[in-house]
Amino acid sequence: MMxxxxxxxxxxxxxxxxxxxxxxxxxxxxIVAGGTDLYPNMKRRHxxxxxxxxxxxxxxxxxxxxxxxxxxxxxxxLRALEWHGALKERLPALWTAVQSISTPLLRNMGxxxxxxxxxxxxxxxxxxxxxxxxxDFCMKCEGTVCWTAxxxxxxxxVNSSDSVPVFIALGATFTLVSHEGExxxxxxxxxxxxxxxxxxxxxxxxxxxxxxxxQGTARSVYRKVRRRGAFDFPVAAVAARVALDGDRVADSxxxxxxxxxxxxxxxxxxxxxxxxxxSDEVVTEAARLAGRxxxxxxxxxxxxxxxxxxxxxxxxxALEALRP
Amino acid sequence: xxNSDEPxxxxxxxxxxxxxxxxxxxGKSPIKVDAMAKVTGQTMFADDLSMPRMLHxxxxxxxxxxxxxxxxxxxxxxxLPGVIAxxxxxxxxxxxxILPVSQDEHALCLDRVRxxxxxxxAVAAVDEETAFEAIQRIxxxxxxxxxxxxxxxxxxxxxxxxxxxxxxxxxxxxxxMEFGEVxxxxxAADLVLEDTMFFEGNTHLPMEQHASLAWREADGRLTIxxxxxxxxxxxxxxxxxxxxxxxRVRVIxxxxxxxxxxxxxxxxxxxxxxxxxxxxxxxxxxxxxREEVFYCHRGRHPVLMHVKTGFRKDGSMTGxxxxxxxxxxxxxxxxxASTYYTGALQTVTYKVPAYRFDGVRCFTNKPPCGPKRxxxxxxxxxxxxxxxxxxxxxxxxxxxxxxxxxxxxAGGITANWLQxxxxxxxxxxxxxxxxxxxxxxxxxxxxxxxxxLACSSYISGAGLPIYWNAMPHSGVTVQLDRxxxxxxxxxxxxxxxGSDTVLAMVVAEVxxxxxxxxxxTVADTHTTPVDLGxxxxxxxxxxxxxxxxxxxxxxxxxxxxxxKRLEVPAVRLRFAENRVFDVQDPENGMPFPKAVQVAEAEHxxxxxxxxxxxxxSPGKYRGAGVGPSPAYSYSAAVVQVDVDLETGVVxxxxxxxxxxxxxxxxEMLVIGQVEGGVYMGLGEALMEEMSYRSNRFGVHKIPSxxxxxxxxxxxxxxxxxxxIESPDPNGPFGAKEVGQGPLLPMMPAVANAVFDAVxxxxxxxxxxxxxxxxxxxxxxxxxxxxxxxxxxxxxxMRVKTLxxxxxxxxxxxxxxxxxxxxxx
Amino acid sequence: xADDSAHPPPSSGxxxxxxxxxxxxxxxxxxxxxxLDAVGEEDGPRTQGPGPGAVTLRVNGTERKVxxxxxxxLLQTLRLPLELTGAKPVCDRGTCGACTVWIDGAPVYAxxxxxxxxxxxxxxxxxxxxxxxxxxxxxxxxxxxxxLQCGFCTPGFVMxxxxxxxxxxxxxxxxxxxAACAGNLCRCGTYPHVIRAALAAAxxxx
Lengths: 324, 824, 206
Description:
The complex is a heterotrimer.
Chain A: E1 8-10, H1 15-25, E2 29-32, H2 38-43, E3 51-54, E4 64-66, E5 70-73, H3 78-82, H4 85-90, H5 92-99, H6 104-109, H7 112-116, H8 129-134, H9 163-169, E6 173-178, E7 181-186, E8 206-212, E9 219-225, E10 236-245, E11 248-257, E12 264-265, H10 267-273, H11 280-291, H12 304-321
Parallel strand pairs in A: 1-3, 2-3
Antiparallel strand pairs in A: 4-5, 5-8, 6-7, 6-8, 9-10, 10-11, 11-12
Chain B: H1 10-20, H2 35-39, E1 55-61, E2 67-73, H3 75-79, E3 83-88, E4 112-113, E5 119-125, H4 128-136, E6 139-144, H5 151-154, E7 171-179, H6 182-187, E8 191-199, E9 211-216, E10 222-226, H7 231-242, E11 249-253, H8 268-280, E12 284-287, H9 290-296, E13 303-311, E14 317-327, H10 335-344, E15 354-362, H11 378-395, H12 399-405, H13 425-436, H14 438-441, E16 449-459, E17 474-480, E18 486-490, H15 499-511, E19 518-522, H16 539-566, E20 573-576, E21 579-582, E22 585-591, H17 592-603, E23 606-612, E24 632-643, E25 650-660, H18 667-686, E26 692-693, E27 699-700, E28 719-724, H19 746-758, E29 761-762, E30 764-765, H20 769-777, E31 782-783, E32 797-799
Parallel strand pairs in B: 1-12, 7-32, 8-30, 10-11, 14-15, 18-19, 25-28, 29-31
Antiparallel strand pairs in B: 1-5, 2-4, 2-6, 3-5, 7-15, 8-13, 9-10, 9-12, 13-14, 16-24, 17-18, 17-23, 20-21, 21-22, 24-25, 26-27
Chain C: H1 24-32, E1 47-48, E2 53-59, E3 62-68, H2 74-79, E4 100-103, E5 106-109, E6 122-124, H3 126-129, H4 137-144, H5 154-168, H6 174-180, H7 191-202
Parallel strand pairs in C: 2-6
Antiparallel strand pairs in C: 2-3, 4-5, 4-6
């Protein structure tokens, strides 16, 4: 069996204690919630934090609060959200994304905050140390080259979160707490420009909760492309939110994920959709425009050219599902 | 029941009569003998074992694809506290390999590494972590050589050959043989089809990683417990490399947590832990990581194929020319046999009057390929069954009818001199056609929906052993004790297929005792008679015969004494429900334990052996050793798919499969094997592939259980299984194989169903969505390889068929023959 | 759900605040599913390691004391020193299910849970679910319906199926079994028999 590298383990009880510990331990500390992403990575020596700060006992970061808006504790398990009947009814796109994450066993362990902060993925990176030695490592970990795109100056590891595109589409905000205070940012602002600096969250911050505004009459869907019905991360995903005025689009958000290091908000397609009915021609054109933003490369399952095509198909299908 | 030259005594006649009156156990579904241990976590697999003072082994593997080893510096590893021994290849210079003709492996590489993952240095340390730290401190200096990653390049021979043996540089094996006049056959055909197809490599992916634990006994003997399917062959290899007499080496195969062919070679890590145990005088264990299992591989060869077949208007074939190019990976493994197998079994399903086969296997700088469930035959089966589908369309025939018209006759001899016995493919096809509603579906479902049909056959054990010898392939000893217990000893290895249960059931049937009274001792070279191993679907047939013979001999001794005691003719005795009694007066009898006591008092301890050697094959030409079998199983399947017209994603909705098993020993287990084959075939058809990055140093692209895709519960469709039972004269109770054959139709049936659904041909496995989509967008509505290279055949062995008046031999070739290949 | 009075004020400059006041939200989450991570009020050790420390586990109903480093996974602890080898190390990274055990009645991957994280919670392994002498109904049904071949993934499937039977009771459907076992891989292809066995166990009709 692969052993984890040694670390000190802290089990604070409150978010404030987490923030204090983070400040005290410095950048070599990492937060762990469910551990389903971090522990396998640590076994393969992707991360070797000196200190782990566990959210396991931080009960105040759990729970679901619903009035018009919805607030999710970042430390809530995926399973709890999946089994939350009212949440499923209120935010079906989010529910679709959550229940599609990995497997039922993993959802018993993993948290929604963990899925948001999911390390970017790449099949040059998600390998054990010996394998990575054979390619002389990569930019994201111990090396210098991004083997996905060797002339690239950035890392192309893929944001593979299912929930992130939905949160962005729903206009959610994330609240981050550090010893210096707290800040609330739009979901999209959480994500950096490349696969290494994929989060703008500072190392001394902990994600405490997610706020999703009242959706009014807007409806949303999430569509995910992957090889199998379980285990697999998305290789292309689209979250779409549309508010209609009669049969015309009053407002929409289209977000792609798993087609690059960062979730893609399809501004061009959204602008095109404004004021139009969701006719066959309109959804096809919007999907085409949206697909332009997808930059899948050869570092996940499935061929990148196929993913590029399919993300358009799925975008169109997402919009079709939102017709009145 | 054949396989006995001895005259039929009254006692044996009594058994024949008893079996003719009906089986007590055969064909029923008693629970597996090892099931309760497995569901409660009690079964001890190799990695569950531990011993006092046990050391842990880790192996440093090559991180380059092809290089000369210039130097190895292990000093820093040796200096690490907790490291007890460091081992390099120099300590084990004797090569080994599964086939006598391919002794090309070393326990640790001597002078060259041939793929990323080739083993170089081993460390034994007090714990796994220390061993892992130690291997990272070892410095190996390499001089890189130019690697080759595909056989179409390798056949050009521009790189330094991987090995200094083989047929021609990096060509490990080149075969060419012709049976009958193929060109004449094409000239006589109404339709000649030529297809080039590709079958990508894939791997066994057993749940259990290989693990081994070795130690030196106080008397100097060596014992190893290992996850191996072939303890006998491991025994031979260990004895050879470690230079110890076989009598002083003991191999115990643990229950295998899945094998599928992936644990049938003797492996370097097995020899390494044995050597380390001898060096340190402590038990040494290794449990491979998942990545290392991918490096052990020995799975399905990638094969590029060209098949040219002549058809008459009625769909019957005039002749076939089959060419295959195998990507062998870095070592020989079973590859010579695999090469022959890509050309062997095309002839046993449908009548092929004239047949030519050319095959080439090349070495490449990747983990070695070998035998995976279906060994060498799923690739050509895919090509053949897809081509038949194309022929049916071209000839305006229903693919099911075409096949039914061209079936090879039962009891006949094929063009390449294989003796077909019972042949139930016709009923298999009829069954799945009827159950699936084929006639209402094929060509009639709406766009995107389709059905596909394909068939297959497989050997029930290879006719010849892997190394030439005249001894039995399987042996069983049955020992009766006074308490009524029956101890059964056999070298067979249960890899999940249920061979332990088959062994117990055969003995229980003959002796009329409960399964609970039977104790098995298996897979231990120290205590059990040799059984060659769990490969080539041989165990039920061969072990079954041996077990029957041993039990029959024990029964004979008991019956003789009981007949005297009861004053009843022995032929009238019956053994059932733990009693021995007169069939004409069932009250006149005694409990089985009492019967054993009566016999033991008269004859002494009762321990009888049985064994089995397959019948000789009619083929006598060079290469005729691959393909013959005591019996061939047959399968047919219909697959129904739903193809997403925009994405090319193929969802399999339902599968109907029929399998001619001759006779089920345990019906429930047979169905499990059929469905298991269907599952694995479905994975190969849709998603499984061993892919490497040849432009990135030759690393395996996805050596993990997450990224090497294997179907989950969500991808497994409902399966309707039918068993066709027509007992084969060569099988024990008429039984034939079931472990491998039912896998084979899946890949072509899926491809044929995709054609029915969307009208495109994917001439390549796996049938992935991108390929379906590309085919739909292609002018010729096809996705597949465009060309086939020149195999550079310089001479072809010509063998006359039976119809031509041949005798199974070939004229001697002009130059001296190399060592003959006998194998499976 | 935290209550403001339940914890001391923070030592840092942050104003600690309960995110959710009142029981309503907690009940909403907890009513359908008892959150796996909901722990009691007892205070375990708050900082451990990197060296070994004493941890008390409840495994199969029995208290077991072990001395482990925080980095040790539950799977490692179960297999050695606790000598419960039913859960298997296969992928060792939460992508196969061979190491499935229950924590507080819910199936999880033991390879990806730290032993220290299992403290104070009820761990159930395949050995604890039933024994050859007294098998759990799912184990008995697996035997009866040949829901295993090589047996290596079997302990994991047994745990997932037993969870499905416990959760859905007699109304268990094939689709629910498929979903419950979607985190377990089998290479022998036992899925159809597994589904049959789980349904039989659910109906109490073995």
